[in-house]
């Protein structure tokens, strides 16, 4: 299982990559996509909204189930990965690269300290 060390992780299996002091990219982990199975649709209707950590920013539909995608930290959703509209399988193939879901402007970067390191996440992703 792939757990990049340069990311932070939530207990709900989202990852976050900080790009600068306020902007970050969010997606679901390799573990999460493997548990969901073949992803057939990613529904994110929250662009432009400001959400708190733990709030639902979208839904991920797989062949057998639908799962909520949750904000790892509070922020405003400034961009949605539109490639997922026509190619939701990117989340399965490249969860940490082309399968990213949203870009956010963090409203409280201090919340990053509440997230897990790669080593800590590995403990729960089994």
Task: Itemize the secondary structure elements and their pairings.
Blueprint: E1 8-9, E2 14-18, E3 23-28, H1 30-36, E4 39-43, E5 50-51, E6 56-62, E7 66-70, E8 75-80, H2 83-86, H3 90-93, E9 102-106, H4 118-124
Antiparallel strand pairs: 1-2, 2-3, 3-9, 4-6, 5-8, 6-7, 8-9
Structure summary:
This protein has 126 residues and is α+β, with helices and mostly antiparallel strands. The chain has helices at residues 30-36, 83-86, 90-93, 118-124, and strands spanning 8-9, 14-18, 23-28, 39-43, 50-51, 56-62, 66-70, 75-80, 102-106. It has a single domain, classed as OB fold (Dihydrolipoamide Acetyltransferase, E2P).
Task: Describe this structure as you would to a colleague.
The protein has a single domain, classed as OB fold (Dihydrolipoamide Acetyltransferase, E2P). It has four helices and nine strands; from the N terminus they run βββαβββββααβα. The chain has helices spanning 30-36, 83-86, 90-93, 118-124; strands at 8-9, 14-18, 23-28, 39-43, 50-51, 56-62, 66-70, 75-80, 102-106. The strands form two sheets. Strands 1-2-3-9-8-5 form a six-stranded antiparallel beta sheet. Strands 4-6-7 form a three-stranded antiparallel beta sheet, with no helix packed on it. The radius of gyration is 13 Å and the shape is globular. It starts with 7 loop residues before the first strand and ends with a helix. The model has no long low-confidence stretch (mean pLDDT 96).
């Amino acid at each position: 299982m792939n757990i990049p060390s340069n990311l932070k992780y939530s207990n709900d299996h989202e990852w976050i990559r900080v790009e600068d002091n306020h902007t970050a990219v969010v997606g679901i982990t390799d573990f999460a996509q493997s548990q969901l199975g073949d992803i057939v649709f990613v529904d994110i209707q929250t662009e432009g909204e400001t959400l708190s950590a733990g709030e639902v920013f979208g839904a991920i539909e797989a062949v057998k189930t639908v799962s909520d995608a949750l904000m790892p930290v509070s922020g405003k959703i400034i961009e949605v990965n539109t490639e997922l509209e026509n190619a939701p399988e990117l989340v399965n193939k490249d969860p940490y690269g082309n399968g990213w879901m949203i870009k956010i402007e963090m409203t409280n970067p201090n919340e990053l300290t509440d997230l897990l390191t790669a080593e800590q996440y590995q403990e729960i992703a089994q």
